[in-house]
Amino acid sequence: MTRSAIVLGAGMVGVSCALALQKRGFAVTLIDRREPGRETSYGNAGVLARSSIVPLNNPGLFAKLTSYLGNRHPALNLNWKRALTRPGWLLRFLWEARPSQAAARVAALESLTSSTVERHRVLMAEAGVPHRLRETGTLKLWRTEAGHAAAQAEHDFLAAHGIASQVLDRQGISGVEPALNPIFPAGLLCLENASVDSPGAVTQAYAELFVQRGGRIEQAQVESLTRIEAGWRVQAGAGVFQAQNVVVALGPWSMDLLARLGIDAKLDVERGYHRHLQAEAGARLSRPVYDVDAAYFMAPMEQGYRITSGVDLSHRDAPDNHRQIDQATASAREAFPLAPFSGETWRGARPTLPDSLPMIGAVPRHPGLWLAFGHQHIGFSTGPITGEIVAALVCREAPPVDPTPFAPGRYIA
């Protein structure tokens, strides 16, 4: 009997789950309301972040709270009305940042990021898009002299975890990125990170590989998910699909579907924005750069230089708030010769759980229902390893890393 699975969500995580299950002989149907890679997986900075091993709600968060609360800092926009609709979630997020949890969270994230570049390198070769991979690292930049100590501390922390980086002074920064204006006295070159020139196109290429190998993609809105004797039934648009296993990888929309089953996964949403600007004649960057003090990424993309914003904690579907992306655009133009912005502003959403770890694994008391969401800012990086974890658990194989820290049971009874 052919084993079957339906994967809901065609972002990087969902496509990766579909490929991993397909590799193990499953007949897989991938369903999303949009084409693959057009939501959260489209709008990120394209970084394959080997170095992203510290959760956002780490103990250092508490020292930053006072600067965040007035909504003046570019890193955060907090909609208080939205936050107070779920005060328990916000308090749990802060509680999870306590120092006693830090080491375990770092270890969990490191287990996901350690093979990021290698896994994407293999998939890009198989999908015929190796030219989209840049193995030039990423560059963090500080605007004040205090950045020297911060860069050195991060270098030492990464070195303790076997991750190579290089501390740079103003001259060193000019050596690796000569087109940057000399406004940054300190930097850290994260040597083991990589990046791509179009995360949406890479996700689309992986989806096309899935189809070439016999997979099926349906573009339709998921309306319902129902347990049946043989497994699960999904109604999507006018179609009805059945399979023994269902993987929910709908990112920030996962909570809408699970709520209909009476499941509260403790999921919330961060919003973010990006814009594409063109460089002035002759100026170029070789890698994504992150301006720590101004809280934006500037990443060379196929469409130009992508400027990303900080986190907007408003309701997922609320109207845009361009305060942060306007600030980021102005700051980026201070750092690099960019033409005036004249295009459109993109807005997306990231799925977030209180402990800043994704939810990967089986749902208690719902046989055949699997979850793969909540990756915050590293879903594009860690999609392939997530797919392998899910597929191994479905097949009762030993997963490539310990899945315990990501188990849905930590929030779902």
What can you see in these coordinates?
There is one protein chain. This protein has 413 residues and is α/β, with parallel strands linked by helices. Among the domains are: 4-41 and 200-267 and 355-410, 3-Layer(bba) Sandwich (FAD/NAD(P)-binding domain), CATH 3.50.50; 60-96 and 268-273 and 298-352, no CATH class. Helix content is 31%, strand content 25%. The protein is built from twelve helices and 22 strands. The protein has helices spanning 12-23, 61-69, 80-83, 87-95, 102-113, 116-127, 147-160, 170-176, 199-212, 254-259, 323-335, 379-394; strands spanning 4-8, 27-32, 47-48, 76-78, 133-134, 138-142, 165-169, 186-190, 194-196, 216-219, 222-228, 231-236, 239-243, 245-248, 268-277, 289-291, 296-301, 304-308, 311-313, 346-352, 359-362, 369-373. It has an eight-stranded mixed sheet. It has a six-stranded mixed sheet with strand order 10-2-1-14-22-21, covered by helices on one side. A three-stranded antiparallel sheet has the order 3-9-5. α6 (116-127) crosses α9. The radius of gyration is 21 Å and the shape is globular.
Brief overview, please?
The chain has 413 residues and is of the alpha/beta class.
How far do the termini sit from each other?
A: 32 Å
Q: What radius of gyration results from the CA coordinates?
A: 21 Å
Average of pLDDT: 96
Strand content: 25-35%
CATH topology of one domain: FAD/NAD(P)-binding domain
Helix content: 25-40%
Uncertain ranges: none
Which class of one domain in CATH terms? Alpha Beta
The tally of beta strands, per DSSP, is 22
- Spatial strand arrangement across the major sheet: 7-8-6-16-17-18-15-20
